Each structure stands twice: as C-alpha cells, then as structure tokens.
Automatic annotation (TrEMBL):
Keywords: Hydrolase, Membrane, Transmembrane, Transmembrane helix. InterPro entries: Sortase (IPR005754), Sortase_dom-sf (IPR023365), SrtB (IPR009835). Its EC number is 3.4.22.71. CDD domains: Sortase_B. The chain crosses the membrane at residues 7-30. This is Class B sortase. The gene is srtB.
Length: 245
C-alpha cells in the first residue's frame, strides 16, 4: 500500500510538471504569435514611431496615409475600425469592434482564436469617435502585450512622460491627453457612451475622488473623452483622456 501511495504521488507530481511546462510553452507561443501578427499590420500602416512630435503638414499627411491604409484593411478585416498608439509604450495596435463585448476577448483581428484578444471598442460606441465617451478594452498581459503598459499611468511621472494617446480611423487622427487614472469595479459608471449634464457632474466628482494623477476630466459634458479599460486583479484599471485635437 505504501509503495502505491508513493507511486501515485510521483505520477501526480510528474503530471503537474508536464502541465506547467505545457502552459509555459503555450504562453510563449501565444506571445510570439501575437507579436508576429501585429508586426505584419504595423509594416503596412505608415504610422511614425515619432508620432508624438509630428505636427502641421507632416502630421496631416501621415494621418491621411494611415486613413487610406485603414480603409484598405477593413476590406479584408471588416471589424478593424482604427488604430491606437501611445508613443513610448508597446501600445501600438489595431482597434476592432464586434457585435458584442465578448468575442474579441479571445480572438484576434483575423477572427482566429487567441488568448490575448485584441483592443476592442465597446459595442455601444460609434466607430467614428462621435460619442462623448469612447471606450476601448484590452487585456493586461504580463509579458507586456495589449494594455499592460497602462499600469504605468498610476504614477504621475509616467503620465507626464506619456501624456498623449493617438487614435487613427479612416476619418483621420484624433489626439487625446490623459487626465484621469483610477481603479474601478466592472460595474462602475465609467462606460456610458454619453452622459446628461447632471450625470456627468456626478461622474466627474466620483472620478475626482479616485483619480491617482493631478489632472481633471473636462467640465463640459460635450467634450469628447477616451476611456481605456484593462484588468487589475479582480478590478479594472481605467485610464481616461480628453480630446485635444
């Protein structure tokens, strides 16, 4: 009986080791596949790595070129509606929008299964960024993929070094400046596409009580904002930015 127990323990440990090894290899392969797939798109998209400093005519020409490329990409991948770039971070990715807020949690822009998912816009939002509040979701992958770099915004110095978010769509480029960072629950009121004046003032005060940086949401409820949402343990890390162009 004693030998059988020892054998069972050894078999159990071996299975744990094999399963752990499988998970590690699977994670590595998923990370490599995610990088490779998105490098293919980046090679097609004429977005400068120095987009933060582009201005005037040069920025306008780039935005026009990106808009044409995005329009072409949508012919092949209809759910691609734009591109998000935060200079100085790894966030330089396509934006998709599905029929619900679940599909792109575990599918890539190609429609194939992928555990990292994609950056995706809330199904209730207008893809042309005409809502007061445009919400984008992305996983917080520990290897640094998708929205992991949003973690840095909990520090004021990081925000000051990376204040701007660029959103490209077939309609052009919009720039946003980060003004709020906080931890929220999935049920918190940060995901409404539009707010009434009263609701906006209530929400703005709610954010001010939780904001981890020394900035404020715009007082005008009609001023467009961008909301980036990712996981932080069982809660959500929310980064919000106001449109500046």
């Amino acid at each position: 009986m004693h030998k059988k127990v020892l054998l069972a323990i050894k078999v159990g440990l071996l299975l744990v080791i094999l399963f752990s090894g499988y998970k590690i290899v699977s994670y590595y392969l998923a990370d490599h596949d995610f990088t490779s797939q998105h490098e293919v798109l980046k090679a097609k998209l004429p977005v400068s790595s120095e987009a933060e400093t582009l201005a005037g005519e040069k920025a306008g020409l780039e935005a026009e070129s990106v808009a044409r490329t995005l329009a072409d990409l949508r012919d092949r991948y209809p759910d691609i509606i734009g591109w998000i770039q935060i200079p100085g971070t790894k966030i330089d990715l396509p934006i998709v929008q599905g029929q619900d807020n679940a599909y792109y949690l575990d599918h890539s822009y190609t429609g194939a299964y992928h555990p990292f998912g994609e950056v995706f816009m809330d199904k209730a939002n207008q893809p042309d960024l005409t809502d007061q509040n445009t919400i984008l979701y992305g996983h917080n992958v520990q290897s640094g993929q998708v929205f992991h770099d949003l973690e840095g915004y909990q520090d004021q110095a990081f925000r000051d070094a990376h204040p701007t978010v660029h959103i490209y769509t077939p309609e052009g480029r919009q720039d946003y400046q980060v003004v709020a960072v906080y931890i929220a629950s999935p049920a918190s009121p940060y995901r409404a596409p539009n707010y009434s004046l009263t609701d906006w003032q209530t929400f703005r005060n709610w954010v001010a009580e939780r904001n981890l940086i020394q900035e404020d949401l715009p007082a005008d409820p009609s001023h467009p904002i961008l909301t980036l949402s990712t996981c932080s343990d069982t809660e959500r890390l929310v980064v919000q930015a106001q449109r500046v162009t």
